[in-house]
């Protein structure tokens, strides 16, 4: 493994960092999250047209750039540094790979070029609070997480003419209020032939009600979807194998975990950078508090933790394409832990100002906590990884 980045990869990082520095400062961030979309559409258009970010990891045949997950992870590390609110995670990391892996050629040709250009955004809708389970991050995704029978979730029924109709409710859908396309996980077959399938629902479909929800992390807007006998299109062929659907979801989950890990590392690095700048300026007893040995030790520990998380995130991004190892969830656990630690220490070392609403330190802390609620928590990510690796004799790991 050659750990050095190519000139193209370094250029992606440099160009994106310069753009986000100009277009996504603290004031722009707060203004963007207060808009109905939850992000700045003008910035999203710029990211798509100038950098091709939505199609970075999509094949050139479908209008993408043709890069690997590594380039996408490096790009998300930069967006994570500034907590840039955008449909990138929902569209490019979660929804587009599902369309690429499971969609028919007609579905790919019609939808992927629009996703790659940024003209269309998408969101993955998984019932309840089961996103981490559906992606295979904290447990086996072969269960009944999509609902079924009286278990709630989303139900899919097929009429005599072959059309599919969905009904049910989905909470905590990332960018679900603004996405032009929804990839909905639904239960079909009833008790006799129970299976989980994915369906495409267009924005504006009759019977679809979307409501933006208040979320802990405002930079990751979420929505509640109500599907009241909504017309839907099966993702893939009519004879889709449920096991292949679940395996693709798990594979996408591994990739998403690697990208999210890089994003969390970017946030942790920025918090540490800002904290070091502050302790050099803040004086107490006639000297900068950064000169105190206790403060130096705390910052040194954070630096080691962030660098270890960065190494894990880079390796996970590389491993998704170059090996069969499934290390994304472990990298995500380490990165989220680093982000939570640096954000917490950042708040502490900023003193009184670190607790104020006006300062940005709390935004990074909320990102760490919010991502753990969506994709974790950390101890369950590690426990399931240990169970898969049979580190404790092949038995189940208590969580």
UniProtKB/TrEMBL annotation:
Q: Which Gene3D superfamilies match?
A: Acyl-CoA dehydrogenase/oxidase, N-terminal domain, Butyryl-CoA Dehydrogenase, subunit A, domain 2, Butyryl-CoA Dehydrogenase, subunit A, domain 3
Could you tell me which Pfam families the record lists for this protein?
Acyl-CoA_dh_1, Acyl-CoA_dh_N
* Keywords carried by this UniProt record: FAD, Flavoprotein, Oxidoreductase
> Needs which cofactor?
FAD
InterPro entries named among the record's database cross-references: Acyl-CoA_Oxase/DH_mid-dom_sf (IPR046373), AcylCo_DH-like_C (IPR036250), AcylCo_DH/oxidase_C (IPR009075), AcylCoA_DH/ox_N (IPR013786), AcylCoA_DH/ox_N_sf (IPR037069), AcylCoA_DH/oxidase_NM_dom_sf (IPR009100)
GO MF annotations in UniProt: acyl-CoA dehydrogenase activity; flavin adenine dinucleotide binding
Q: Give all residue intervals belonging to the Acyl-CoA dehydrogenase/oxidase C-terminal domain.
A: 258-382
Q: Which residues form the Acyl-CoA dehydrogenase/oxidase N-terminal domain?
A: 6-118
Q: Which PANTHER family match?
A: ACYL-COA DEHYDROGENASE, ACYL-COA DEHYDROGENASE FADE28
Q: Which family does it belong to?
A: Belongs to the acyl-CoA dehydrogenase family.
State the protein's name: Acyl-CoA dehydrogenase
Originating organism: Streptomyces flaveus
Q: In the record, what lineage is assigned to the organism producing the protein?
A: Bacteria, Bacillati, Actinomycetota, Actinomycetes, Kitasatosporales
What gene is behind this protein?
A: acd
């Amino acid at each position: 493994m050659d750990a050095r980045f190519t000139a193209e990869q370094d250029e992606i990082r440099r160009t994106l960092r310069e753009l986000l520095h100009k277009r996504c400062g603290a004031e722009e961030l707060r203004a963007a999250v207060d808009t109905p979309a939850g992000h700045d559409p003008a910035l999203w258009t710029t990211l798509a047209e100038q950098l091709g970010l939505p199609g970075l990891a999509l094949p050139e045949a479908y209008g993408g750039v043709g890069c690997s997950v590594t380039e996408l992870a490096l790009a998300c590390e930069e967006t994570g540094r500034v907590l840039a609110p955008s449909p990138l995670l929902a569209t490019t990391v979660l929804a587009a790979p599902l369309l690429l892996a499971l969609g028919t050629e007609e579905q790919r040709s019609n939808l992927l070029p629009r996703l790659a250009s940024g003209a269309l955004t998408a969101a993955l809708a998984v019932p309840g609070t089961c996103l981490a389970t559906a992606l295979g991050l904290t447990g086996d995704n072969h269960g009944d997480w999509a609902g079924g029978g009286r278990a709630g979730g989303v139900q899919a029924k097929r009429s005599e003419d072959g059309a599919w109709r969905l009904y049910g409710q989905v909470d905590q859908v990332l960018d679900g209020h603004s996405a032009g396309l929804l990839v909905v996980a639904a239960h079909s077959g009833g008790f006799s032939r129970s299976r989980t399938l994915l369906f495409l629902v267009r924005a504006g479909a009759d019977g679809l009600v979307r409501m933006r929800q208040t979320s802990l992390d405002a930079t990751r807007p979420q929505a509640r979807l109500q599907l009241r006998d909504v017309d839907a299109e099966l993702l893939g062929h009519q004879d889709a194998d449920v096991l292949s659907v679940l395996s693709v979801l798990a594979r996408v989950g591994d990739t998403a975990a690697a990208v999210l890990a890089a994003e969390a590392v970017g946030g942790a690095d920025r918090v540490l950078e800002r904290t070091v700048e502050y302790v050099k300026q803040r004086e107490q007893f006639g000297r900068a508090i950064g000169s105190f040995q206790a403060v130096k030790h705390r910052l040194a520990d954070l630096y080691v933790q962030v660098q270890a998380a960065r190494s894990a995130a880079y390796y996970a991004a590389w491993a998704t394409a170059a090996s069969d190892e499934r290390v994304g969830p472990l990298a995500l656990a380490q990165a989220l832990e680093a982000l939570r630690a640096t954000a917490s220490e950042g708040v502490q070392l900023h003193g009184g100002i670190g607790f104020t609403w006006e300062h940005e330190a709390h935004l990074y802390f909320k990102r760490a906590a919010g991502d753990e609620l969506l994709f974790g928590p950390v101890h369950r990510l590690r426990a399931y990884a240990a169970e898969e690796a049979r580190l404790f004799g092949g038995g189940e790991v208590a969580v």
